[in-house]
Amino acid sequence: MWNSRKPESWLQRRCAALILWATPAMSQVLITEYMYTGGGPEFIEITNIGDHARDLAGWSIDDNHRQPHAFPIGALGVLGPGGSAVITEGDAAAFRASWQLGASIKIIGELGVMAGNNLGRSDEINLYDEQGVLVDRLTYGDEVIAGSIRARNASGWCTTAALGADSILGWRLSVPGDVQGTWSSGQGDRGSPGVHTPGDVAVTPPPVVSHPAGFYNESFQLVIEPPPGGGAVYYTLNGAEPSTSSELYTGPLTVAPRGGQPDVYSLIPTCTPELWRPPLTTGFKATVVRAMAVRPGAEPSRAVTRTYFVGSGVASRFTMPVVSVVSDPSHLFGYDAGIYVPGRVYDEQFIPGSHWSTRPANYTQTGAEWERPGHIEFFEPGGVLAFTQSVGLRIHGGYTRQWPQKSLRVYADSGPGHATVFNHPIFGDAAPPEHRRIILRNQGQDFFHAFCRDDLLARVLPGRDMDTMASRFAVVFVDGEYWGVHGVRERFDAYYLANHHGVDPGAVDILEGHGLLPESIVEGDNSHYVEMFAYMRSHDLAVPGHMAEMERRMDVDQFLNYTAAEVWCGNTDWPAGNLRYWRPRTPEGRWRWNLYDLDQSMGWSAASAASVDSPGRILNSTDWSTELFRAIMRNQDARDRFVNRLADLMNSHLRPERTLAELHAIRAELEPEMTGQINRWRAPVLFATWVARLESLAQFLQTRNGLLRPFVASNFGLPGTWTLTIEHPHGADAAVRVNSIDLEGSVFPWSGVYFSTVPVRITAEAGPGFCASLVVDGGETYAGSAVLNPAADTTVLVQLTRSGDFNLDGGIDGSDVDAFFSAWEEGAPEADFNTDGGIDGSDVSAFFSAWEAGGCG
Q1: Which one-letter DSSP state was computed for residue 718?
Q2: Residues 59-84: what's their mean pLDDT?
Q3: d(CA 624, CA 214)
């Protein structure tokens, strides 16, 4: 974006082509070319398509904020008929030299904004005349507008039919040989800035491939037919983007098993020499076919990509999903631009004697300029193709970019015939069915260890008011070669929040880390958080009114729940790291926290052992990262809520039987593929090493609750613990809740350990026609709800009695009497009011006792 402000709403941006506050005036100067990011500066081209010269004095441009005079371009002077001018955010002289533009081409640069990636991936370009009248607008969005181009590294140019029409679907990508005479800049971008040729060009339809991507038991003959109307077909078999320099298709291709063929890409070092080890064995391979069609006088077709796995029983070879990632090898492994290798950045910025973990490399680079185009095919177990589409690929993560196996962030990319989302329930029916971005994760800091820590808690904790990333494992192939096991994960971003919380993805504040610093801003701004933090620092939260004000600004219960989970798992890479939080940018929007990247926890190291006092670590800290929690803990009610939230977690989702069962399921899921993973990446070092680390993790899960409770008691000054037992002979006839735990589906008697002097609330809600009461240790009885703070172990019996509302109409009146006696005289089963097995006078007495009491007798 040119401006850090965001549009008023996502809908406003998405529908900008339809909902306009101004209609472009007729003009002979129009937007004819743009590139929103690339290896060099972004640019916009305008062209005078009229017969008369036009003085641009007073003219201006803006993005989706639609502000006339925002960025003046009058310095371009007079633009003659047919003449084009360029507006760039870089230095004008450097841009001219990079694109080899003559002195006659008008260029204006340095528009008073930061150089770099300032046009958004989905944005507007607005052109205004000297009166501030809108004369042309281009609304583009390759994440939002289906079928639109993606003008990244290659500019988009306007066809004659789309001139002044604000229709991105009438724009074309610059390719060598097109009618614009496209050429390349010194940074490798493609376009024709300053030169606009009126006209249009047809686009060749894609070729027709005989076999769908998938799994085949035997070799077969693949036929690639030109599109209807003819044309030549060019293809590649190594993942490269096809061009007219590729193989010309002349007849069927034999697609056969590739057993015995040597590795190619798997032998390319993908990290520093200290960490790189080549595969132990040659990996399984698929055949990747990419084909395009070409016709004279037309643009080449988009590439068709198909991945074929061939071999006897190949569909059952992998017990988890299979993901084929295809991208031109230069995009992944090229020295200059390959995002998966050390590359030029490593060599040019290498400092002798530096530690391997601090060395810049191609794979440590971030941002849109280090995104590469690719294609993905996702196969469910059994070889069922779930979806196939073009994507954008970036390396994902922080420190773990240094690992040989890297995490890939995958963007659902737009293109003809492709959706702008992954429209498939990747994570099952319980998760959102659509995702704009997913991560193929290398398991982070757990890469060399148990390979599953973050996944374990992501699967165990949903339902506890946690924002966790859904988890699934998959075998990944890159350009046809086996690339090992990855965790398929959601990504925390604005679209995740839209999926899970229904918020406007264009109107959220997302922060990470400190929160008070500008570099903490991921989306939106931090002004609300800065104000909240200032309030917290200037007010004693022990005062109930001050705490109530904090509750208005942040979801304190969710924050306590989130902190309890981090404390339980002993995450040592938190809270100074992996700290992300968000709010909807609305007047009532409150801050919530994301739970993610839990790799350095649960016994990952001695610092996160089950016997470590993690509550004391944050309560006794003086670090900025614990300041908010420590301030909230000054409030006694909040202290009690935190202690109870932690106790609730240990009594429900983090019970050993639950966590161990999930770990056992993960082991069963990973085990068939871990030998292949270890052979490919030498991590974990041996299969036996991996098993031993799983067993160590299991030991943590088995012992953590018992070891943690004394630390909670001592840090919060509590005398000890007591055991609550709930007896519920009626089962599903009454819903029972202990603090934040719904005991639906629990096996009774149910027991949980709680902390002395911290009140525990128990509620029971009966179904229609009944009333629930709680009998404590066979003595005192409470109607429906009780707050207990006993000094010793306590048993609570859930007891049901019939209600006087016999006809279940919500009121207690004469109609209930009529209904009861009608049932009683007929001997209907429901007339056994006292449930003693017979229908007699005692039922009449029981009914009237309840009826006269106005509810339950």
Answers
A1: -
A2: 89
A3: 52
